[in-house]
From TrEMBL:
Pfam families: TAtT. It comes from the Bacteria. Gene3D superfamilies: TRAP transporter T-component. This is TRAP transporter TatT component family protein.
Length: 278
């Protein structure tokens, strides 16, 4: 854990010396994203979380720090926490930070969960390029929250708001974060089969666009394509082809390395269970 204490010390020293707090918030998540050691990150990330909590206590309305907190808590809950109750608690904190970031950036975003859907969509229609990072962080944190609160119908009812956020991200810049908004929309459209109101063909199009926009570097897009679409429509050939491509790829890609290493683990898990599923 010494290396993580050193990172914290350096960051705090830079703050004392007058380094821009916005830049610190933006760079915290990047250092995690480019690490290829899931075990190291899993053991060390709680130190980052505690540090971000402390920074936010000092600068409670700093949008970049609140966004960093939302991203880091969401990533930790999604990648490293298996206990469902703990994951739910961490995702709740991620969403709280994301909502606070939204409010700190735009005062008309301070009550988004209670805003009627038509007004919510109207607010999103006014969002510009400068709001793009916030919209993506908010949509990601909200999706994670709903996933770990799926037994709460009030939470599930908010899926339409997550969809609207990601659709606005796609409209503003579909290539943002290697097309990951398309990845989220792919999952949202494949939650149910077509017979129950799902939209699997739209899901397929979103997954394929996510892969294309990242030039195949976003390996998690292929894993989710296999898990959520190919399994939904019982396409074993597509399922296995996507997962083999993931396992054959180089996971070390700027901004995607940690996620890609995790994707390769999940690809192997899905292949190992394919005979039983299909």
């Amino acid at each position: 854990m010494k290396q993580w204490r050193a990172v914290c010390s350096v960051v705090l020293l830079l703050i004392v010396q007058g380094c821009a707090v916005n830049r610190i918030g933006d760079n915290l998540a990047k250092g995690i994203e480019d690490n290829n050691d899931l075990v190291l990150v899993g053991e060390g990330l709680p130190s980052y979380l505690l540090m971000v909590d402390g920074l936010i206590l000092t600068w409670p309305e700093r949008t970049s720090l609140l966004r960093a907190g939302a991203d880091l808590y969401g990533a930790y809950a999604g990648l490293f926490v298996e206990d469902p109750d703990r994951a739910a608690t961490l995702n709740e904190k991620a969403l709280d930070y994301a909502m606070r970031a939204a409010c700190s950036q735009r005062s008309d975003y301070c009550d988004l969960r209670q805003t009627p859907v038509p007004e919510f969509e109207a607010l999103l229609a006014e969002a510009g390029d400068e709001d793009l990072p916030l919209l993506f962080t908010l949509g990601s944190a909200w999706a994670g929250y709903i996933q770990t609160h799926s037994d709460d119908w009030n939470a599930v009812a908010e899926l339409a708001r997550v969809r609207a956020l990601m659709e606005r991200v796609v409209t503003l810049d579909e290539g943002y974060q290697n097309g990951q908004a398309h990845m989220y929309l792919g999952v949202l459209n494949s939650l149910l089969p077509a017979s129950l109101g799902g939209q699997p063909e739209q899901a397929k199009a979103h997954f394929e666009q996510a892969v294309a926009l990242s030039q195949g570097r976003n390996l998690l897009a292929r894993v989710l394509y296999a898990e959520h679409y190919a399994r939904l429509v019982f396409d074993r050939e597509l399922h296995d082809a996507q997962l083999h491509k993931v396992l054959e790829a180089d996971p070390e890609q700027p901004g995607l390395t940690l996620q890609n290493v995790y994707a390769q683990q999940q690809a192997q898990r899905l292949l190992d269970s394919a005979d039983a599923y299909f």
